[in-house]
Each structure stands twice: as C-alpha cells, then as structure tokens.
Design goal:
Shape: globular
Radius of gyration: 13 Å
Number of domains: 1
Number of helices: 3
Structural class: mainly alpha
Number of strands: 0
Amino acid sequence: MKESEKILLVISEYLKDNPKIRFGQALFNLGINEFADKKNPEAKGFLLRDIHSDSDSKIVERMVKAVNNWTSLNK
C-alpha cells in the first residue's frame, strides 16, 4: 500500500471512530498539520507550519505517533 493510501485510510478510520470531530480538526489531531512553533504555538499567533516539503512517510510517522497518543489517552 502506498503511503498516500495509508494516510487516507487512517483519516477515514479516525473520522469513523470519532464522528463528532471536524475534518480540519482530524488533520491537526493526527499530526498532519502542525503549529509552526509546537512548544509555544501562541508565540507565532498559532501559525501552522507549511508541510509542503514533508514526505508522505514523515506524515505517516507523525500520524502513527498521534494515533498511539490518542489511543493511550482514551484508555
């Protein structure tokens, strides 16, 4: 399975499991979108980081980490 297909599958499953989550919120919760300054987001006015140069594999890594974090928080 190509990484882009994995990304779509994870987003789809996440939205099915969390029907009250908005799409944009899901992108953020899954680590696809990130704040420019993750440690102090308000310092840059909650500006989102441009992910243009991120490879699909990097995005998948962030998504796996985010899903693992959300799963452990919801136990």
